[in-house]
UniProtKB/TrEMBL annotation:
Name used for this protein in its record: Sporulation protein
Organism expressing this protein natively: Geobacillus uzenensis
InterPro entries reported for this sequence: Spore_YtxC (IPR014199)
Pfam families attached to this UniProt entry: YtxC (PF08812)
Domain of life: Bacteria
């Protein structure tokens, strides 16, 4: 018999449920018992090594990753990095998951980790579990899962870095919105054509503006009075002009600058397909709207 003692009855119950799910494929090799409080007992009836490797260890590895991992991540966020606000904790947890699930690139890691998180947990259980053992699960986490906990902390650190960057980004976007709200529109309409990595400016008559003309639009006071850097090729002239309407033609709506423009200009900006931009013929080209 293997006895596992938990600090929380809810976790004991979750492990008991997972073991019973495994038992469907392994009966009568083992069975699990739950005392209704904090202890789960596993009785092995088949060959010990086989039952542990094929059934008990996979179930306990799944238990750690599916039922316990979020609690461990939150403890690192709170107790190691001192984020105590619940909303902040949840945002950092969500970002940590995006790294854990491979949605975001781990920019600190040059090469892939030699072992997955699951492999770290499996290895810890494989070197520890045996019939006749009685142990505290929390002690097991503390003393046997150090490499796994270090891996979780690595991803929490990445998530916190990302969280701080996103906070700075939101502050930056709000600053530009405030600047925009305080300015009277100088143009009623402006056209932008996304030709990666450039954004080409066109006036209300769809005449392309030169780089020098775009730079002349920038309100230097706006740029120098702000505490954060404003991109001088796109955002600075746009906020300086504060157009009432912007039509942006792009085939890359997920581009970072495109999304920033959407966040700043909101309902003033409309996205179009790049192919929909039609330049006027030279004969019909009108005079650029005066600022």
């Amino acid at each position: 018999m293997i006895e596992i003692h938990f600090d929380e009855a809810s976790e004991a119950e979750k492990l008991f449920w997972l073991l019973n799910e495994r038992k469907r494929d392994a009966c009568p090799l083992f069975h699990a018992a739950y005392d209704g409080n904090n202890t789960v007992a596993v009785y092995i009836h088949g060959e010990e090594k086989h039952v542990l490797e094929r059934h008990i260890i996979p179930a306990m590895t799944a238990f750690v990753q599916e039922m316990v991992e979020d609690r461990l991540l939150l403890s690192i966020i709170s107790d190691v990095f001192y984020f105590r606000d619940v909303e902040e904790q949840q945002q950092i947890l969500a970002l940590a998951h995006s790294f854990l699930d491979g949605e975001r690139r781990d920019y600190r890691k040059g090469a892939a980790f030699a072992a997955s998180r699951a492999a770290l947990v499996r290895g810890a259980f494989a070197s520890f579990l045996r019939d006749g053992l009685s142990f505290s699960f929390s002690s097991f986490v503390t003393f046997r899962l150090k490499p796994y906990m270090e891996r979780l902390q690595h991803y929490v650190e990445l998530a916190i870095d990302e969280y701080k960057l996103e906070q700075e980004y939101q502050t930056f976007v709000q600053m530009l919105r405030d600047c925009l709200a305080s300015r009277t529109p100088k143009w009623t309409r402006l056209y932008l054509v996304h030709d990666p990595p450039r954004f080409l400016f066109y006036d209300s008559d769809r005449r392309e503006l030169s780089t020098a003309e775009v730079k002349q639009m920038i309100d230097r006071h706006l740029v120098f009075s702000q505490p954060m850097y404003i991109d001088s090729s796109v955002l600075a002239p746009l906020v300086s002009l504060a157009p009432a309407e912007i039509e942006l033609y792009t085939d890359h709506p997920d581009d970072g600058m495109v999304q920033t423009m959407q966040n700043v200009f909101q309902e003033r900006l409309r996205l179009r397909r790049r192919a929909d931009f039609l330049r006027p013929s030279p004969a019909s080209a009108g005079k650029r709207e005066e600022s």
